[in-house]
Amino acid sequence: MSCWMPGCPALSMCRGLAALPIACLERAKDLKTRLGILLHKPELGHKTGNSSKLQLGSRRRDSSRDVLEWRESFDQLLKSKSGVNAFHTFLKTEFSEENLDFWLACEDFKKTRSKTKLASKANRIFEEFVQSEAPREVNIDHETREITRKNLSGATSTCFNEAQAKTRTLMEKDSYPRFLKSASYQDMSKQAASRGTSKRSHT
Fold first, then answer.
1. What is the mean pLDDT of residues 5-19?
2. 190 and 69 in contact (C-beta within 8 Å)?
3. Could you give the residue ranges of the DSSP H alpha helices within the chain?
4. Separation CA 126–CA 34 (nearest Å)
5. Residue pair 141/167 in contact by the 8 Å Cβ criterion
6. Which of 21, 60, 108, 140 has a CB 3.0–4.6 Å from the CB of 144, allowing a cystine?
7. Tens digit of pLDDT for each residue in 76-87?
8. Closest CA to 145 of 119, 166, 172, 174
9. CA-CA distance, 117 to 17, in Å (whole number)?
10. Considering just the CA atoms, what is the radius of gyration of the chain in Å?
């Protein structure tokens, strides 16, 4: 950039730059080069946006597949975290969520490795769900209740197996079929099926 006019801003700028040390000028050139490289790169935000959309689409497809698989078997429902949540919400409407909560507590209990924690957890689960007049008493027969009580004397990871199995069977035979017929599940399955149809029509 050049100018012969006295007092020209460009001339003043050139003189100012000439007075700068060489190291400063070299650094400025280096920064300019780096900026040029960055400006010619694809927009990072745009790239990330596409990635997020793909992940979201994948999650939706997985969710749709899950919802339709819940009706295949009770096991499929229990394997799905979102399925367990949906089933729990349904059980609340029937005031019987304690059955699923007990089953989940037993699953968590089986993962306990510490013998001290095993004993304390076993007593807590028994008092909350199993003993007569428990705050969240599950619907099991007297014999199973007594077997479970005796198991507490030497608590192991299997001490609730019989009570848990009885509760699971009750949910599978009683609550699960009603859940599949419920308006909430029917709506979810229709939406999942329509998403699946839409996906096939675009491929």
1. 49
2. no
3. 9-19, 22-40, 44-69, 74-79, 81-93, 97-110, 115-125, 142-151, 161-170, 176-181, 183-201
4. 67
5. no
6. 140
7. 999 999 999 999
8. 166
9. 74
10. 33
Among candidates 12, 134, 16, which has minimal Cα distance to 24?
A: 16
Beta carbons of 76 and 69 less than 8 angstroms apart: yes
* Residues 140/105, Cβ–Cβ less than 8 Å: no
Smallest CA-to-CA distance from 155 within 192, 120, 187, 202 is with: 120
Burial 133-171 (b: 16+ CB within 10 A, else e): ebeeebebeeebbeebeebbeebeeebbebbbebbbebb
Dihedral sign, Cα of residue 128, residue 133, residue 135, residue 136: positive
Res 23 pLDDT > 90: no
Largest CA distance in the chain: 108
Distance in angstroms (rounded) separating the CA atoms of residues 148 and 162: 8
pLDDT band, very low/low/confident/very high, at 111 (cuts 50, 70, 90)? very high
- The pTM of this model reads 0.67
Q: Report which residue type is found at 102.
A: F
- Cα–Cα distance, 92 to 94 (Å, whole number): 5
The topology (CATH level 3) of 60-192 is: Regulator of G-protein Signalling 4; domain 2 (1.10.167)
